[in-house]
Predict the structure.
Amino acid sequence: MAEYVNIRASGILGQEELVGFLKSRFPAATKQIGRAVEPGTECVEMRVPSNSPEFEEIREFIVTRRKQQVPGFCPPLTIGWYLRKYTKTELLDAEILLLERVSHFEPSGEECGTVYETLCKHCNWGRQISDLILDLRRVPQHKDISETIAWVEWVVSSRFAQIFAANKFIGAEFQPIFDLRNPIKRSDKWSQLTVTGAAGSLARATKLGRDPFSPSEVSWRCSLGHSVVTQFLSEIHLKRSEWDGSDIAITSALFGQGRNLLRPTPLIFISQRLYRAISAAGLTGFSLEVAHLA
């Protein structure tokens, strides 16, 4: 596994000092994002290996200014995030894998008439109490897994559902999706993925943090304990005793600070069996990260 840290700084966010530091110390690696229309609006990004001297130099620079409470460096701003890349062999050797949806679209189901019951006013945790209605013209047509901007509405292709059923995988149900233009017409191409498998809770070996420069300090917690906003500073470890053996499963914990249309969401994990099946079929719309049962 190759692990990197992406660092982004913007003058608009008051990070001119960090922009200047990255450009002067690492000119070859620092790339401009977009075009600076006015002075002080430049945005730059760079990527460094997480175990490199360059990262340690950047970390020391940022941590020092956070300790000094320098504006532009302190919460609620996050400055970087981890990126992990795996070989095919590493993915095939993993017992379980984190499945991340990389294809998103709008409008959300709620904007199209899907009904929700909100259960927490602090994090906007809720439950869907009607069939999912979507503008099916907006679903990514060449992706087998996608989600709306609400985070909790997962759409899969008929190919995904067929592979799941043909291999007798367990841990999911496929619910109908109806078209906004004709709400009594069920889609024959798309289904809502409802994960019934239980992945349990995170093990202690999982490291959380606001960003790579503030380990052990999460960004936000629901006051009633439903959800948390955090980055994962390590690969994710789950408690083996709580995994129910499903081929696809979700965590008991929720992640994200929901508001308005956004709702906190669990993490999705898949078995090695399911990974091999969807990989062999060439399904798309997701990325994978190695995870562990502890």
Remarks:
- The radius of gyration is 21 Å.
- The chain is about 20% helix and 35% strand.
